């Protein structure tokens, strides 16, 4: 399930982020602050205030990813542009303890459907480092097409990193949903 973040999510968000430093830090923006200093409950509360302010302005759509009763990740649509472009960029992360269970593809499919229908955007982009094999599988499962290769695009984990740009437009989804694409995939055998 996706839902807007709440300030009371701060402790669980911080606990998940701190437990996932090795898993997540390689994909995160460069920062002078230590991982433990930028993933505190207070940091989350500050970020939630900023994200919800962006949501009120229509430039950001922040959500936490909930599995069972627990927050296990985050997904945000940012850089929302109206006018002739009608587009946004989506970024996400998930707890390594639940990776491989279909949670990330489901969360991204829900977000894509929301952006392309309810929000009324025309195009959604997801930018992924070429070495992030797990995220590449996610966009491939959902049928996003690769549009480009951005060289030295973002300052990630201490260096300017290349990213592959994937996108989908409302016309590509047609009358179905992105979530229905995921539901039509064969279920892999257990273990």
How would you explain this protein's 3D organization?
This protein has seven helices and seven strands; from the N terminus they run E-H-H-H-E-E-E-H-E-H-E-E-H-H. The chain has about 190 residues and is of the alpha+beta class. It has one domain (about 1-185): Gcn5-related N-acetyltransferase (GNAT) (Aminopeptidase). Strand 6 and strand 7 form a beta hairpin. The longest helix has 17 residues, at about 40-55. The protein is globular. The chain starts with a strand and ends in an 8-residue tail after the last helix.
Topology readout:
Layout: E1 2-3, H1 10-19, H2 21-25, H3 41-57, E2 61-67, E3 70-81, E4 87-94, H4 103-116, E5 123-128, H5 133-141, E6 145-156, E7 159-169, H6 170-173, H7 178-183
Parallel strand pairs: 4-5
Antiparallel strand pairs: 1-2, 2-3, 3-4, 5-7, 6-7
Helix pairs in contact: 1-3
What is the total number of structural domains? 1
Strand order across the largest sheet: 1-2-3-4-5-7-6
Oligomer: single chain
| Coarse structural class | alpha+beta
- Weakly predicted, low-confidence segments: none
Number of helices: 7
CATH homology-level superfamily:
Gcn5-related N-acetyltransferase (GNAT)
Strand content: 25-35%
Helix content: 25-40%
- The number of strands is 7
The topology string of helices and strands comes to EHHHEEEHEHEEHH
The value of Rg in angstroms is: 16 Å
Based on the structure given, which CATH architecture is correct?
3-Layer(aba) Sandwich
**Overall pLDDT confidence:** 94
C-alpha geometry: globular
CATH class: Alpha Beta
Q: First CA to last CA: what distance? A: 25 Å
